[in-house]
Amino acid sequence: MQDREGAGRPLDVAVIVGSTREGRIGADVARWFTERAAKRGDLLLDVIDLADYPDFPAVYPATPTDAMARFTSRIARADGFVIVTPEYNRSFPASLKQAIDYAYDEWHAKPVGYVAYGFDSRGLYAVEHLRCVFTELHAMSLRDSVGLHLVGESPGPSDERDDRAVTALLDQLVWWGLALREARARRPYTS
């Protein structure tokens, strides 16, 4: 059943690949995640790989560039987000922070989930820093995240724990995403 707020239509989710380093594994992690997410009928996925935006300006301009406008329009269309991020030096990459800062209102009152990867911390430090950033942007950070240990003798997401974490993340993302989409339709968010 679809009500006037569109609760019956799938949630539009932007999956943002935050690393742009040469030799990165972020695209592989995003592929692993989206393969699992695509099995659900309640999501429409839009993968936004920041490596596909080489024309982002090195210096923040007074007027948005075409690349910035394309990126922010994709953010505006989304009902929710999943950030795929490595942990670099106990935080997230500068390329991701730059892209996040190109939008502002477009993040408001939408849920954000995290798929992080790294060494023993499984990307936890990157996620904790992102939570602070998205709180400032009036977004709803999900409690549960996916953290992958990708360095060592058996790297890569492979166990049931990782699959359970994806399910928990997606269940929360859909619940919050539908609730906030309905709320924004009834009463525009103001900051």
From TrEMBL:
Q: One MF term in GO for this entry?
A: oxidoreductase activity
Q: Which Pfam families does the entry mention?
A: FMN_red
SUPFAM superfamilies xref list: Flavoproteins (SSF52218)
Highest taxon listed in the record's lineage:
Bacteria
Designated name of the protein:
NAD(P)H-dependent oxidoreductase
CC terms in the record's Gene Ontology section: cytosol
Q: Which organism is it from?
A: Streptomyces mesophilus
The NADPH-dependent FMN reductase-like domain is annotated at: 13-147
